[in-house]
Write a structure and sequence with these properties.
This protein has 87 residues and is mostly helical. The chain has one domain. The protein has 2 helices and no strands. It is flat.
Length: 87
């Protein structure tokens, strides 16, 4: 009986996360869309909605990368052999 409740709660949690993702993506898209008439549909600062969008992506486990680097491509610097800043 307890497993069924956990599964039900997990489904509800996923539905809420996806709903918030769709809502924020819609508002974010509408904030940038400008029809040919020149009058925007919604006019607000999209920063808050963008943070909700990225937070909901993270909650669903989606990871985005800004510079396209993989974890294998990390730059490792060894500071033992450098003399930068030493007089």
């Amino acid at each position: 009986m307890d497993e069924q409740e956990d599964e039900k709660n997990g489904r509800l949690e996923s539905i809420v996360k996806v709903s918030i993702l769709i809502w924020s993506a819609t508002l974010l898209s509408l904030s940038y869309y400008e029809p040919p008439s020149g009058k925007k549909i919604v006019d607000f600062d999209p920063t808050f909605i963008a943070s909700i969008f990225s937070g909901s992506l993270a909650a669903l486990g989606v990871q985005t990368s800004k510079n396209g680097r993989n974890k294998k491509d990390k730059l490792i610097v060894d500071n033992k052999t450098t003399t930068t800043g030493i007089k």
